[in-house]
Known about the structure:
The chain is of the alpha+beta class. It contains six helices and 16 strands. It has helices at residues 44-50, 112-122, 137-142, 202-214, 237-243, 272-286, and strands at 18-23, 35-41, 55-58, 64-66, 74-78, 100-107, 124-125, 146-147, 150-151, 156-163, 166-170, 189-199, 250-251, 254-256, 264-266, 299-301. Strand 14 and strand 15 form a beta hairpin. Helix 2 (112-122) packs antiparallel against helix 4. The two termini are 24 Å apart.
Amino acid sequence: xxxxxxxxxxxxxxxxxxxxxxxxxxxxxxxxxGEAEIWFVETLETLAEAVEQPYRILGGGSNLVIDDxxxxxxxxxLSGPLAKADLTPDPELSDPASGxxxxxxxxxxxxxxxxxxxxxxxxxxxxEGTVGIPGQVGGSVWMNAGTRFGEMFDGLHTIEIVxxxxxxxxxxxxxxWGYRNSDIPRGHxxxxxxxxxxxxxxxxxxxxxxxxxxxxxxxxxxxxxGCAFKNPGGVSAGxxxxxxxxxxxxxxxxxxAPEHGNFIVNLGGATAADxxxxxxxxxxxxxxxxxxxxxxxxEIWPEEAxxxxx
Length: 310
Ligand code: EPU
């Protein structure tokens, strides 16, 4: 496959999608990353056009570290209707007698925090355990984001997936999903989902959200991609990093957070190289002591920038 030009003018969209060359740092929660051509895609039709050339899909930019040189592929960002939620219960799929609610389509670009606020106000349960995750719906589904109070697959009915081969719809039962893993291949775009929720009350949902939120109280407030490593064998990676005495370690303007060992924070002008340096430091220190693998929770763009961390 031919790679898009790494610099110069953005390639135009036939179907009128807005295309701009921009620094990706502003689209990531850690605030690092070089430039790329961003396609702000609003419909399934224009999404089909966007995937005709090599692409990457950008969600909420959490759990993502982009190299300082950016990426050569076009970067797709779901916008407009693909970033909005239709929460109207589907009359054919919902069952008021048992309190089952299956919603209309929720765009993959919908920010998760705002969606959870709406679900709380409606008293609709199943996803409140994911409170505090800063991402968008698509990315959160792709990695089955969650906390120990719940995860995205607790509240999914249908997942619509776009690839260069076309659009298909699957249910969670079609996938071999698990801890922080949806089984959906990298590069497959979660364009929309239908949520499967349970009627509860706004008070009960709020109470469970507050419990999940309380578990995050001690987490750092600075710019961060989120937790760096998956918990190996169910043991907190943060606890292991803490025990290894690595909290507070700093490279350039990136630091292992003193509050929680599994967070790397940007003190101001951090680069991707600083963040990757800290990941290597942790992996080099912890991995030899573990019986199983120490896996990154982050995505790294391009993958070659951190092949040694996989
Ligand atoms: N701990 C330490 N030192 C540390 C970090 C943790 O002693 O530096 C101890 C804590 O005091 C606690 C235990 O380790 O007793 C577990 O810590 P925590 O409750 O923070 O849970 P975790 O397993 O480290 C997971 C998720 C977080 C999520 C929290 C709270 C993963 C990899 N991490 O962390 O998710 O916020 O539970 O629900 O699953 C993320 O996914 O990006 C993320 C940060």
